[in-house]
């Protein structure tokens, strides 16, 4: 158990050091953080599966985990950081949320009052400038991929909500494609009413659940 505590303490110090290095790029910080988190997971797995030599297993697991954490998943590059900054400017005051996810994707969360009217999947006029700027940033960073996910509230049946959520995602994709983004870069999905972020028992909650989420990812290289 002491070995695990030591491993986690060392990783915590490493994370603190990474976040405090002003000379490191965003890519370097992200890779270093991934390596540290991977090392933590590897240390636990190493000890959990160890026989007699738990110290050696923890060290081996940490080394393997660090390699996986540094090399797998998505990368938060300078291009991704620039795209996030651009989208924050483009969406300011619109109600669209722009964030970096835990796995280093750029996320745009578009509420219903910006994206689509109730029961419809044609894009509203106030979303078009946001998607115009978004398409420009995508065309400036060709190595990224995009996933668009549509959601509905619980009003109506699955027979209505499921295709509606897909159609909303498809409308978003088609709008981006019409502005030069390759269709091969964009995947779509519809979740119907199955992933609410608020209670469907109130009008406000249902409004929050009617949304479109867009994820942008750059594969680690």
**What would you say the CATH architecture of the largest domain is?**
2-Layer Sandwich
| Oligomeric description of these chains | single chain
Instruction: Choose one word for the global shape.
Output: globular
Q: Can you list the strand order of the major beta sheet?
A: 1-2-5-3-4
Please compute the radius of gyration using only Cα atoms: 21 Å
Q: Distance N terminus to C terminus?
A: 35 Å
- Estimate what percentage of residues fall within beta strands: 5-15%
The CATH H-level homologous superfamily of the largest domain: OmpA-like domain
How many distinct beta strands? 5
Count of separate DSSP helical elements: 7
Sketch the topology as an H/E string, one letter per element: HHHHEEHEHEHE
Q: Low-confidence segments, ≥5 residues, pLDDT <50?
A: 1-11, 23-28, 41-51, 56-60, 62-71
Biggest pleated-sheet summary: 5 strands, mixed
CATH topology of the largest domain: 60s Ribosomal Protein L30, Chain: A
The total tally of domains equals 2
> Briefly, what CATH class of the largest domain?
Alpha Beta
Mean pLDDT, nearest integer?
A: 79
- Give helix % range: 40-55%
Structural class: alpha+beta
Q: What does this entry look like structurally?
A:
It is globular, with a radius of gyration of 21 Å. The chain has a 5-stranded mixed beta sheet with strand order 1-2-5-3-4. The protein is α+β, with helices and mostly antiparallel strands and 221 residues long. Helix 5 (128-140) packs across helix 6. Helices cover 51% and strands 13% of the residues. It is built from 7 helices and 5 strands; from the N terminus they run H-H-H-H-E-E-H-E-H-E-H-E. It starts with a helix and ends with a strand. It has 2 domains: 2-71; 78-217, OmpA-like domain (60s Ribosomal Protein L30, Chain: A, 2-Layer Sandwich), CATH 3.30.1330.60.
């Amino acid at each position: 158990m002491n070995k695990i505590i030591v491993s986690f303490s060392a990783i915590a110090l490493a994370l603190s050091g990474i976040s405090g290095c002003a000379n490191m790029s965003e890519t370097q910080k992200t890779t270093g953080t991934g390596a540290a988190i991977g090392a933590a997971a590897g240390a636990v797995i190493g000890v959990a599966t160890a026989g007699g030599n738990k110290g050696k297993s923890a060290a081996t697991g940490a080394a393997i985990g660090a390699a996986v954490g540094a090399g797998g998943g998505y990368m938060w590059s300078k291009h991704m950081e620039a795209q996030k900054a651009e989208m924050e400017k483009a969406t300011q005051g619109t109600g669209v949320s722009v964030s970096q996810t835990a796995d280093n994707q750029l996320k745009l969360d578009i509420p219903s009052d910006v994206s689509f009217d109730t029961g419809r999947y044609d894009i509203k006029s106030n979303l078009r400038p946001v998607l115009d700027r978004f398409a420009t940033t995508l065309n400036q960073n060709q190595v990224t991929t995009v996933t668009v996910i549509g959601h509905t509230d619980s009003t109506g049946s699955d027979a209505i909500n499921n295709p509606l959520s897909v159609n909303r995602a498809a409308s978003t994709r088609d709008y981006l494609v019409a502005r030069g983004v390759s269709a091969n870069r964009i995947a779509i999905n519809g979740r119907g009413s199955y992933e609410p972020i608020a209670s469907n028992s109130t009008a406000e909650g249902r409004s929050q659940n009617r949304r479109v989420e867009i994820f942008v990812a750059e594969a680690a290289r």
